[in-house]
Amino acid sequence: MESQKIKPSRWYFALAAGIFLAGIVIASIVMGIGAEDFIALFKDFDSDTGEVLQRVIVPGSGELNLSEAGEYTIFYEYRSEVNGVEYHTGSNLPDMDCSLTAGETEVSILPSFTHANYQFDLQDRAGVAVMKFEIDRPGTYTLTCAYADGSERPEIVLAVMKEFFKEFILPIFEFTGSLMLGMGLVCGSSLAAVIMFVFVAVKRSSAKRQLQAPGDIEQS
Questions:
Q1: Which of 100, 131, 89 is nearest to 113 (CA)?
Q2: For residue 39, what are the CA distances in angstroms to 22, 106, 124, 137?
Q3: Left if phi > 0, otherwise alpha if psi is -120 to 50, otherwise beta: which for 4?
Q4: Closest by CA position to 78, among listed 54, 98, 94, 97
Q5: 215 part of a folded domain
Q6: Number of domains in the chain
Q7: Which domain holds residue 114?
Q8: Residue 120 falls within a domain, yes or no?
Q9: Phi and psi of 196, rounded to 5°?
Q10: Domain harbouring 57, CATH code
């Protein structure tokens, strides 16, 4: 009978544990979605679809389906994989001459000095921004590159991306935000669980003392 009168109920301990576990589960989902979206930027992209990164093996040429006008960034992927072939080349781009054409129109390609520190290193891909160009109209363009000394080896991977900040920097911010949100959920749920656990424990202890008090008086 006394145990039934002690309040709050023991079920509040289970509720505290549930809050803690729920926070971990939700945080894991939030961080997992953020990580999956971020990693997807550099995995399994078809160069024919024109999505995010289009890759060309050089020396040689390849078509780029550029769906929007504006500025594009060319990355040198010194660690990459294209059509099942792995590429591991030096982190410094060899001296190379590149041109971009659409029919008889040639687009100017500039060294990407302002993007010199734009680089990524993620799982099976790593690269650095080396060149940039800007187009006035969308369409199919041909990127052609050759070594300045005329050599044909080694083959390397160049990847083209529209608006580096929008396509790469913003996802980084979003990924960081998902990590911070996840950590906040874990901390918040942990704090709430601890507060509830301590509160219930103190209240139950006080209730037990009050129930025991009459008996103690009668014995005295």
A1: 131
A2: 25, 34, 10, 30
A3: alpha
A4: 94
A5: no
A6: 1
A7: 46-162
A8: yes
A9: -65, -45
A10: 2.60.120
Tally the residues of the chain.
Answer: 220
Residue 110 lies in a domain: yes
Q: What SS3 class is residue 119?
A: strand
Residue 5 falls inside a structural domain: no
**136 in helix, strand or coil?**
coil
Q: Which residue has the tokens 């010199």?
A: 116
pLDDT tens-digit profile, the chain (220 residues): 444 567 777 788 888 888 888 888 888 887 777 776 666 555 544 444 444 678 898 998 888 888 888 888 888 888 888 888 888 887 788 788 889 988 878 888 877 655 555 777 777 788 888 888 888 888 889 999 998 888 888 898 998 887 655 555 566 677 777 778 888 888 888 888 899 888 888 888 887 777 776 555 444 4
